[in-house]
Predict the 3D structure of the following.
Amino acid sequence: MQRHLISAADLSRDDAVLILDTAEEMARVADRPIKKLPTLRGRTVVNLFFEDSTRTRISFEAAEKRLSADVINFSAKGSSVSKGESLKDTAQTLEAMGVDAVVIRHGASGAPYRLATSGWIDAAVINAGDGTHQHPTQALLDAFTMRRRLVGRDAGLGQDLAGKRITIVGDVLHSRVARSNVDLLHTLGAEVTLVAPPTLLPVGVETWPCAVSYDLDSTLPKSDAVMMLRVQRERMNAAFFPTEREYSRRYGLDGERMAKMPEHAIVMHPGPMVRGMEITAEVADSGRCTVVEQVANGVSIRMAVLYLLLGGNEPAQTRTEEK
């Protein structure tokens, strides 16, 4: 493992499988009466969120506390950042406090990389989402969910997703989740297809390690997992499709479309879901939808990342069986 986790593209296959296997061990902690390990006792982790977040921030905080770390939550709203303080000054303040790791979410693509390579702070940096660039722990929890569902929990240990066919649908242009998943799933041997309107595909997508289609109905019968993306209206400054109804008609997933998928195939969504637009309530509430599992798996994955960056580079089996 490297010192920081900035991009899913930085992970080798062995790194990624090590994280997935370690997360499997961490998941067992959730089944205990006392959901806590002493692994990071005495270590301080700062959650530095310049963008609003609910799932990611709470997930990281739960992971940190289950590993017994001291946690500091920093929100840009109401802080010195709102008064004009720079990222450099904020980092130097954290350095003076002696923090061991910084989990950062920032609206500017590249901010976590800048923090990790600037020399401003001597701490592990974990990217919790930067602009439209990367969200590596989301890709890892998605891969963890796919491996559990498509390969099996015990059988999956040490395994990647070789040969699995994953379809990612929707607003790829503004989605750091899509970028991270394409990078990681390719590394893990999966075959990825992006399905979106031409206006919601980024420039240069033809160089990505995936296929591109504009026809959702033709890809569904060949998919082991279908990941629906939220349409990020807050990042849009133009009309990228005619109407919500037209988008839903061509790129939304309903019960009729879900029936075209293979029986074993699963439906995923990074959340928050816009029901009725990219996904119907019938699909979101079905047994094939893994949204709730993804949230639970996110805690296990983030525990694994924190453990490997701050605790050790070996699988956590011996640690988790101590108690």
Summary: Residues 88 and 118 are 9 Å apart (CA to CA). The longest strand covers residues 124-130.
